[in-house]
Amino acid sequence: MTTTASASAGDRALSRRIVALMRWGTLAASILLVGAAVLTWAGMASAASVAGVAGSGAFILLPLLRLLLMLSHFGRRTDRPYLGITALVIVLVLTSAITGMLL
Fold it and tell me: What digits encode the pLDDT tens for the residues 49-58?
């Protein structure tokens, strides 16, 4: 088990990583979507389609990547309750995504 001071420092580090992931991931996805709009305007439909799908996919994957960051953090800390909860949420997200694709 970790001490309270090192646990809170680890939690702050996790928060910084999540903030960076969400900030830069959102920026990258937004740039891809703006690029798709520009490519559509320029008449390059196939390239615009690829950029649009990549940008949309990035927006969809960002929350899952956040959960994976949290899972690795709780695994390193051996924080079993939060590790289990995070793993369960990941399973639920993946199950709903697979179910949605099959229906």
Answer: 999 999 999 9
Alpha carbon 77 to chain centroid distance? 21
DSSP per-residue string spanning 33-63: HHHHHHHHHTT-HHHHHHHHHHHHHHHHHHH
All residues at 6 or more sequence positions from 78 whose CB lies less than 8 Å from its CB, including other chains: 1
pTM, entire model: 0.77
- Residue matched to tokens 């099959």: 102
- Asked if residues 46 and 61 have their Cβ atoms less than 8 Å apart, the reply is no
Tokens of residue 1, six digits: 């088990």
